[in-house]
Amino acid sequence: MLLNVSYNNKEVFKKIEEEVGKSFSIKERFALDGIGSPKLFILDSSPHIQNLLILDNNTNSCNIELRPKGIIIRFRSLLETFGLIIPYHKLSLNKTDLGLYTIYRDQYYIQVRADTKAIQKFFTKMLGHRADNSPTAIEDL
């Protein structure tokens, strides 16, 4: 789900917490060695997101925040901040070329460039966290 997260709206915060859970505590953040990604440059995106990104002339960039049950991809357009909320059971991550990752949720996708070790380390951390917190698959029983 794509939401405008610029303002302190209780209804929006409630939707986010239902989808991906509350933010980690300080103790959990230290244990995970941080929950935020470095700055990611957006190369391609779905039409919904692209229509928001073309409204200004700034460099298209985003960051990812880990949550207990999913991730939030935040990006800015004009003076607004938007968040793509993705629970782990709807998250699909593809590594296409060297250093290109595409993150999918239903009809939304964002393709980012991951050309540094820090970004690649974050993606492996995200996939490990997803594996630890996803429900048991029927094939595993």
Order of helices and strands: EHHEHEEEEEEH
What is the CATH fold-level name? Answer: PH-domain like
CATH architecture: Roll
Question: How many strands appear in the DSSP assignment?
Answer: 8
Give me the side-by-side strand order of the main sheet. 1-5-4-3-2-8-7-6
> What structural class is derived from the secondary structure elements?
alpha+beta
How large is the share of residues in beta strands? 25-35%
Sheet of most strands: 8 strands, antiparallel
Low-confidence stretches: none
Shape: globular
Please count the helical segments: 4
Number of separate structural domains: 1
Mean residue pLDDT:
89
End-to-end Cα distance: 31 Å
Measured as a percent range, the helix fraction is 25-40%
Radius of gyration using CA atoms only: 15 Å
- CATH class (first level) name: Mainly Beta
How would you characterize this protein structure?
This protein has an eight-stranded antiparallel beta sheet with strand order 1-5-4-3-2-8-7-6. The longest helix is centred in the last third of the chain and has 17 residues, at 117-133. It is of the alpha+beta class. It has helices at 10-20, 26-31, 47-53, 117-133; strands at 2-4, 40-45, 61-67, 70-77, 80-87, 92-95, 100-105, 108-113. Helix content is 29%, strand content 34%. It is globular and about 50 Å long. The chain has a single domain (2-130), classed as PH-domain like (Roll), CATH 2.30.29. It contains four helices and eight strands; from the N terminus they run βααβαββββββα. A hairpin with a 4-residue loop joins strand 6 and strand 7. The mean pLDDT is 89.
